[in-house]
Specification:
The complex is a heterodimer of chains A (493) and B (690).
Chain A lengths: L4 H7 L1 H18 L7 H26 L5 E3 L4 E3 L1 H21 L8 H19 L4 H19 L6 H32 L14 H18 L7 H8 L2 H26 L16 H21 L4 H22 L1 H33 L10 H4 L1 H15 L5 H16 L7 H26 L13 H19 L2 H14 L1
Antiparallel strand pairs in A: 1-2
Helix pairs in contact in A: 2-3, 2-5, 3-4, 3-5, 4-5, 4-10, 4-13, 5-6, 5-10, 6-7, 6-10, 7-8, 7-9, 8-10, 9-10, 9-12, 10-12, 10-13, 11-12, 11-17, 12-13, 12-16, 12-17, 13-15, 13-16, 13-18, 13-19, 15-17, 15-18, 16-18
Chain B lengths: L1 H10 L4 H15 L5 H27 L10 E10 L2 E9 L1 H24 L6 H20 L3 H19 L6 H32 L16 H4 L10 H16 L8 H4 L5 H10 L1 H11 L1 H6 L5 H21 L4 H21 L3 H28 L12 H4 L1 H15 L5 H16 L1 H26 L34 H16 L12 H6 L10 H23 L11 H6 L1 H7 L4 H65 L3 H33 L1
Antiparallel strand pairs in B: 1-2
The chains are: A mainly alpha (493), B mainly alpha (690).
């Protein structure tokens, strides 16, 4: 069936709304609000951004349940799974905008929010496509927006430096990715990921696959392509760090899952113990182990909360790779579930840091001393988020990890072929508990130098509280989400 | 089948019953400032709403009585699923659940009302009510659960709340010790319970008690009787034994009863709610819930074991209660003893009798405990019965309410306790004459020690003002001191109203279970498929006789000539001599444990500490050193050399993008890219070598 322009416009209606909102935000800030103070402008443009996101959510919700559509040979896919993740991305972006409201983003408020919305468009396109060129373009759009956002502490050198490093690193990774894509196209003659693997994995195709993995490895920050992450997280404004750690990762993992499980399903090789065979599974296994070990161990010595969260997110990317290696429907379900839990938890944790750090004086661990007395509610929420990251039951992080590991164990249940990965994962989770608890120790045990209470706006408390509630519910009652993801994925895979 | 559908519908709403107290607890824990009124309103209000739901469910189950089978509503749902294995949770609505939930919410509601008065002067009022709400939620969760996993979780939560509430005045060393003792002792039983759950899961493959398809663990229980388990028991018998060990801990059965009397260190409403009416009954309830497993193993010695444990506990605790001077300790041992009655009835096959006694006992024992709380408040924190006396004059309302509770517990004819105890004795009589004899003796002791308590507390003259109070060890808070010499006074309405309401039930509730209406209404309600036990005049008249004889003997020793001074010797102590001391020291059980089990545990502790130091710590340290080493290497190579080195140099002195660019050109990002290049090569190697 040929797609009409109307179909395409309908499929992209959410993205169109976001672009309009971004342009409107720019106009509002450069026009009417020119003479207002920074605080008022942030509020006004931020609220406009959130309204735009809510408006964008409406067509997404309307399209839910209308069956699947593949327009332009898979360039634009509209089905419930992509719509669900678009919705998740909209929520994550809205929360990022929400925690930006009280955050000092400097003079260029309009640009800040507009860039954020453009970034959101990039991510939403990324999840909505099954075509390699579009994947690359969407990825670049997202990345460029994030480079700009990282540099938004314009008067702070570290922010500039981080952005520059992020950009240079990203540019080289993009080169790898593009090189890989062109190799793949050269070998297969198609850019549609459903048609990539018709035969076996030839060496040239293998090199292309490897290059693609490197490109994505950069996006999701796994060892050894992670070096930009701690710098970027630390230097970027905290809401931006939250955005990089959540929105961009959700989109990247989603599309990576599709590329590997749909495009290169036959090229997995084997990462089963004693039966190693060339393919992406083995590559992912190496990267996963490196990420889990280095991410968790390096996090131990960090003194800055954002750096610590950066290393922790590297480790989490390692866990998620275990689910990818497990592959199949259970593996994909566990990966999707984990991404959702992980994104919500991390956004919550960054939100708390953003809300508290300005008043606490900084983002070092010592700045959070005695926070339980100064801001009891946010400290409680942080407790929930951090314990969820650590994988403590009954929070979402525990079940996410449980499913990842269970999927890996179940993949070769007779010989427990992936058990070695799971063992590494569990051991490293134990290590991670140490630095997560250090965060809590500073908040709950250490005495504060300054005992004054930190008042945070109620809307922020409520929003973060809802995120915490979601994290708890995903842990206590995971089945509805799992069933949903399972049924949606079974239609795609 | 309309009725069955209605029940299933209600069962799917059973979660609402524990939900409201849970929300109340959550809100209270998040309150920024302690708000007494709000906290009490929330707790009582939530319990009230739960009570309404519980009563609705209760009345719905009444309609099922005319069938030959138990009407049961089930609502299961999948908690989470992995592959083909799914873990279900669920709620059940049957007469057992409905009756228990109605009792817990109703009695709990009035205890909460009373607690607003008892805890009035406590500065941690909000924390107290938060714990109470949490306790109510977990207890109700335990009751409505259709799943052993959920039941076990709530079971542990109930234990936790009990721990928190016993140690509510944690600054008192005795309370801190008591909370630990309660937690650890019940934990011994929980190990057994957990083993039982695991075995049941192993053999039936499900933790659901009932399912609509008949695949629930209890519905499969019959098949377990033919498999061989441990110690010459069938599998059903082994599981039943393990479950019963759990119940022994929770329901304070000999020899795991030691924690219950010490638990009286908690505030009195806690004693009433947890250590008399509800939590301690959880063990009995659980045995009732799992009764199909017990009856499946009936050919084994498990049921006799259950009966004899109950019987021994009943007699043993009753003898100790005779020689206690603390008003709450008498009631505590009496609770142990009554729980023994219930367990004995269950062991004798009297499922209905055990549950009936559980329900009536909950009402009158809550009444007695709350009454003792009123006495304690009225006498300005006095708990020693020797220093009371004559309270009938000062606290008439409390006296009359307490008096009804006393009649019920003593088994005075036509009160609630009379009917239920009579049924327990009847069941035991048909099963085993020796146990019946011992139990009848315990019933006699019950009447006797309660009469003793009544005379010491309420009759004679007020002995409280005689001596200085610094000697006694039961002053609760600062409020108690300095008031010793004052005359006692009646408690406010929010304390006496609950006991007044409960006393109505203590008097009349037993009529539900008399053999004279429709051949025992309660029996028909709970177990329509079986017939109530055959009536026996011997049992009836003997139990009336021993009750009255106990009261008479109590009057003879304590009533004819009441105590004059608080320092007077107990008249019974004069007669019994050394035996009385042994009873007063609780048969030296605590001392025995101290000399044997605790010594042994200490020795083992020392041993394992050494092992821990040498082996476990060694391994842990090795892991820690490896992790630390890696992190240091990462820090040196990654952070310090590459990042911090540049940053510190860059940020300290220089403020110019040119210099930063220069520094970047100095090879920092190249370093990053070098690492990346190494990574690419590494992956290529991995890809092509394997």
């Amino acid at each position: 069936m040929d797609a009409t322009y109307l179909d395409i416009a309908r499929g992209l209606s959410a993205e169109i709304v976001l672009v309009l909102a971004a342009l409107f935000a720019l106009a509002l800030d450069l026009g009417w609000l020119r003479r207002e103070g920074g605080r008022e402008r942030t509020r006004a443009v931020g609220v406009l951004t959130i309204v735009g996101l809510i408006l964008a959510a409406i067509p997404v919700c309307q399209m839910l349940g209308n069956g699947s559509q593949r327009l332009l040979g898979g360039t634009l896919v509209v089905d419930d799974l992509t719509l669900l993740f678009k919705l998740l991305l909209i929520i994550l972006t809205a929360l990022t905008a929400l925690i930006s409201l009280e955050y000092d983003v400097g003079r260029h408020v309009g640009e800040y929010f507009a860039t954020m919305l453009f970034g959101a468009v990039g991510m939403m396109l990324l999840v909505a496509t099954e075509e390699l060129i579009t994947i690359f373009v969407a990825l670049e759009l997202t990345s460029l927006c994030l480079y700009i956002l990282t540099a938004f502490h314009k008067s702070w050198l570290r922010s500039q430096e981080a952005a520059l490093k992020y950009f240079m690193f990203g540019a080289i990774s993009s080169a790898f990715l593009l090189f890989g894509l062109s190799l793949v196209f050269g070998v297969t003659g198609t850019t549609n990921i459903r048609e990539l693997m018709t035969g076996s994995l030839t060496p040239l195709l293998g090199v292309g696959l490897l290059m693609i993995l490197i490109g994505f490895g950069f996006k999701v920050a796994v060892v050894p392509f992670h070096l930009w992450a701690p710098d970027a997280y630390e230097g970027a404004p905290t809401p931006v760090a939250a955005y990089i750690a959540t929105g961009s990762k959700v989109a990247s993992f989603f599309v990576l899952t599709k590329v590997l499980l749909l495009g290169f399903a036959g090229g997995a090789g084997s990462a089963l113990w004693g039966k190693f065979a060339s393919g992406w599974a083995m590559l992912l296994a190496v990267v996963a182990v490196l990420s889990m070990v280095l991410g968790n161990c390096a996090a131990i010595v960090q003194r800055n909360v954002k750096r610590l969260l950066a290393y922790s997110s590297i480790a989490h990317a390692g866990y998620i790779f275990i689910g990818l290696i497990a592959a199949g429907l259970t593996g994909a379900t566990s990966v999707m579930f984990y991404i959702i839990v992980y994104a919500l938890t991390n956004l919550g944790a960054f939100g708390v840091v953003a809300a508290l750090s300005a008043r606490a004086g900084g983002e070092e661990l010592t700045h959070f001393n005695g926070m339980a007395k100064r801001a009891p509610l946010l400290s409680l929420l942080m407790l929930i988020f951090v314990l969820s990251l650590a994988g403590v039951p009954p929070l979402g992080g525990f079940f996410g990890k449980f499913y990842l590991f269970a999927a890996a164990v179940g993949q070769d249940a007779r010989h427990f072929g992936l058990l070695w990965l799971v063992v590494v994962g569990i051991l490293m989770s134990a290590v991670s508990l140490y630095y997560y608890l250090i965060v809590l120790k500073h908040m709950y045990v250490e005495a504060a130098a300054d005992d004054s209470r930190i008042e945070t706006p109620t809307y922020l408390n409520a929003a973060l509280g809802l995120v915490a509630l979601a994290v708890i519910l995903l842990g206590v009652f995971p089945q509805p989400t799992l069933t949903l993801l399972n049924s949606l994925l079974s239609r795609v895979l | 089948m309309e009725h069955a559908e209605h029940l299933n519908h209600l069962a799917s709403q059973q979660w609402l019953i524990p939900f409201f107290p849970l929300v109340a607890a959550a809100i209270q824990s998040l309150l920024k400032k302690p708000a007494r009124k709000l906290s009490a309103t929330l707790t009582i209000g939530a319990m009230g709403i739960s009570c309404a739901f519980a009563l609705r469910a209760f009345f719905a189950t009444l309609g099922g009585g005319h069938h030959e089978e138990v009407a049961r509503g089930i609502a299961n749902f999948t908690w989470f699923k992995f592959g083909t294995t799914s873990l279900d949770l669920g709620f059940v609505l049957d007469p057992l659940t409905a009756g228990m939930a109605a009792m817990v919410t109703f009695v709990g509601f009035w205890i909460f009302v009373n607690a607003t008065g008892y805890m009035h002067d406590d500065e941690n009022f909000t924390r107290f009510f938060c714990f109470l709400s949490l306790f109510a939620a977990s207890m109700l969760g335990l009751v409505v659960s259709n799943n052993l996993l959920l039941l076990f979780m709530c079971w542990e939560l109930v234990g936790l709340c009990s721990y928190l509430l016993i140690g509510f005045w944690y600054f008192k060393p005795s309370a801190a010790a008591a909370m630990k003792k309660a937690f650890i002792t019940t934990r011994v039983g929980d190990v057994g319970f957990f083993i039982g759950i695991l075995m049941l899961y192993q053999h039936t493959g499900t933790l659901n008690l009932y399912t609509a398809e008949g695949t629930g663990a209890l519905q499969q229980a019959g098949g377990l009787a033919t498999l061989t388990g441990w110690w010459g028991l069938s599998v059903a018998g082994t599981i039943a034994l393990m479950l019963f060990i759990g119940a022994m801990g929770k329901s304070a059965q000999f020899p795991l009863h030691v924690w219950l009397p010490d638990a009286m260190e908690g505030p009195t409403p806690v004693s009433a709610l947890i250590h008399a009416a509800t939590m301690v009954a959880a063990g009995v309830f659980m045995v009732g819930r799992m009764f199909p497993v017990f009856t499946a193993g009936a050919g084994d010695w498990v049921m006799d074991f259950v009966m004899w444990v109950g019987c021994i506990t009943a007699v043993f605790s009753a003898t100790i209660a005779v020689a206690q001077f603390d008003i709450k300790r008498v009631l505590a041992y009496s609770t142990c003893s009554q729980l023994g009655f219930m367990v004995m009835a269950l062991g004798a096959g009297g499922f209905v009798a055990g549950q009936f006694h559980l329900l009536t006992h909950a009402f009158f024992k809550a009444l007695l405990f709350l009454g003792s709380g009123c006495v304690i408040i009225g006498t300005h924190h006095e708990q020693d019965m020797r220093k009371m006396g004559g309270l009938k004059k000062y606290m008439p309302i409390t006296f009359w309410c307490y008096f009804t509770g006393y009649l019920a517990l003593s088994g005075f004819p036509l009160t609630a306790g009379f009917f239920s105890k009579d049924e327990v004795l009847l069941e035991t009589f048909h099963h085993n004459k020796a146990a019946w004899g011992l139990a009848t003796f315990a019933a006699f002791l019950t009447a006797f020690y309660m009469t003793r308590q009544m005379y010491m507390v309420f009759a004679g003259k007020w002995r409280g003002g005689e001596e200085s109070h610094h000697g006694h060890g039961h002053a609760h808070d600062d409020h108690g001191h300095g008031h010793g010499g004052h005359e006692p006074n009646e408690v406010p309405w929010n304390m006496w109203l609950p006991i007044a309401v409960l006393s109505i039930f203590a008097l009349f509730m037993g009529w539900l279970g008399t053999p004279w209406f429709h051949d025992n209404l309660f029996h028909h309600y709970l177990a329509p498929e079986e017939h109530s036990p055959e009536h026996s005049n011997l049992v009836l008249w003997l139990s009336i006789g021993v009750g009255l004889f106990g009261i008479f003997l109590g009057w003879l020793i304590y009533g004819r000539k009441t105590m004059e001074h608080a320092t007077d010797a107990d008249p019974l102590a004069v007669k019994l001599g050394g035996l009385f001391t042994a009873l007063n020291r609780k048969w030296y059980i605590d001392e025995l444990y101290e000399a044997t089990i605790i010594r042994l545990t200490m020795a083992l502790g020392v041993f394992f500490r050494a092992v821990d130091k040498a082996v476990v710590d060694g391994i842990l340290h090795a892991i820690a050193w490896v992790a630390w080493g890696i992190s240091q290497v990462v820090r040196l190579v990654g952070d310090d050399l590459i990042i911090n080195g540049s940053f510190d140099a860059g940020c300290d002195g220089v403020r110019g993008s040119g210099r930063i660019l220069a520094k970047l050109q100095n090879g920092r990002v190249q370093n990053y890219l070098r690492v990346m290049a190494v990574g690419v090569v590494l992956l290529l190697v991995v890809y092509f070598v394997k």
